[in-house]
Amino acid sequence: MTLAAHLVELRKRLIIAVIGLAVGMVVAFFVTDQVIWYITGPIRILDAERGTETPFAQLVFSAVSSGFDLRMRIALAIGMLLSAPIWLWQVWAFIMPGLTRKEIRYTLGFVGAAIPLFFAGGYVAVLVAPHVIEIMSTFVPEGGVNYFDAGQYYDFMFKFVLVVGVSFVLPVFLVALNVAGVMSGKAILKGWRIAILIACLFAAITTPAADIFSMFLLAGILVVLYFAATVVSLLFDRRRAKREKAAGLLPEVS
Question: Where are its TM segments located (predicted)?
Answer without folding.
Answer: 14-39, 74-95, 107-133, 156-180, 192-210, 216-236
